[in-house]
Amino acid sequence: YIAQIARALKYLHQNHVIHRDIKPENLLFGLRGELKLADFGWSTYSMGSQHTIVCGTLDYLSPEM
Known about the structure:
- There is one protein chain.
- By secondary structure, this protein is an alpha+beta fold.
- The chain has one helix at 2-14; strands at residues 17-18, 27-29, 35-37, 44-45.
- The strands form two sheets. The protein has a two-stranded antiparallel ribbon.
- A hairpin with a 5-residue loop joins strand 2 (27-29) and strand 3.
- This is 10929_t:CDS:1.
């Protein structure tokens, strides 16, 4: 499943989309068992600028955030 998440994130980043809220609750399984990334409520479109706003679920943020 990690490879599926990585492919989804690669696709999003190639299209300048940042999800910003990846957590188990936002991962769904399709009818054939494929993993799907859901809940794009915190997502943003980015053309190379660095974002400094911290958002998402606090329980899943890395310590350096």
